[in-house]
Write a structure and sequence with these properties.
The complex is a heterodimer.
Chain A: E1 9-13, E2 18-23, E3 31-38, E4 45-50, E5 55-56, E6 61-64, E7 70-75, E8 84-92, E9 105-110
Parallel strand pairs in A: 1-9
Antiparallel strand pairs in A: 2-7, 3-4, 3-8, 5-6, 6-7, 8-9
Chain B: E1 5-7, E2 10-13, E3 19-24, E4 31-37, E5 44-50, E6 53-57, E7 65-68, E8 75-79, E9 88-95, E10 105-106, E11 110-114
The chains are: A mainly beta, B mainly beta.
Chain lengths: 111, 115
């Protein structure tokens, strides 16, 4: 599975959009981009995933660049409860073996 | 379904003692994973099962660690002769094989402190 690069930390004002970037320049054509988040003292939580089209669900939107070398997770109206570590992971679809976590981005939502 | 359940939530043990953790996955999930997480780091893969078969083990899983999933349902992770370096959060996750649109579901973890 390809490696990802994320900024170690970001701040966001409550109610504003949080845009979390991820670089995955070595991604292969059959690899999906997955996002998970981990709120303090809990297990990671699945947020969203995509291949090449932009995706949206009730939690977030995922924007993948045309060359697929980077992506952005968007939390449209961040709340204090969105304060967490966000992990970007790339892996082959249907390959339900291990997820490889990096150190992620710590998002601090401030009032 | 209440999700992935892990017990106990916290465990404090003396160095040299054995400990066992339990994970109950989502009932229809056939894959079960164990991860370890130390402070400030992302979760590190330890091992995973498909039904009762243990399909992969990380090099992190030393001889003192053993995991079982005897009937393809719940799983246990045992650490023998614990060391202070074993102090960490131990996470369990489950998934349904072959469904690319289905993410992993993690439990809340067992926090182990070795004193």
């Amino acid at each position: 599975d390809a490696k990802t690069t994320q900024p170690p930390s970001m701040d966001c004002a409550e109610g504003r959009a949080a845009n979390l970037p991820c670089n995955h320049s070595t991604i292969s054509g059959n690899e999906y981009v997955y996002w998970y988040r981990q709120i303090h003292s809990q297990g990671p939580q699945y947020i969203i995933h995509g291949l090449k089209n932009n995706e949206t669900n009730e939690m977030a939107s995922l924007i993948i660049t045309e060359d697929r070398k980077s992506s952005t997770l968007i939390l449209p109206h961040a709340t204090l409860r969105d304060t967490a570590v966000y992990y970007c992971i790339v892996r082959v679809a249907g390959n339900t073996g291990k997820l490889i976590f990096g150190q992620g981005t710590t998002l601090q939502v401030k009032p | 379904d209440t999700g992935v359940s892990q017990n106990p939530r916290h465990k404090i043990t003396k160095r040299g003692q054995n400990v066992t953790f339990r994970c109950d996955p989502i009932s229809e999930h056939n894959r079960l994973y164990w991860y370890r997480q130390t402070l400030g780091q992302g979760p590190e893969f330890l091992t995973y099962f498909q039904n009762e078969a243990q399909l992969e083990k990380s090099r992190l899983l030393s001889d003192r660690f053993s995991a079982e999933r005897p009937k393809g349902s719940f799983s246990t992770l045992e650490i023998q002769r614990t060391e202070q370096g074993d102090s960490a959060m131990y996470l369990c996750a489950s998934s349904l094989e072959g469904n690319p649109n289905y993410g992993y579901t993690f439990g809340s973890g067992t926090r182990l402190t070795v004193v």
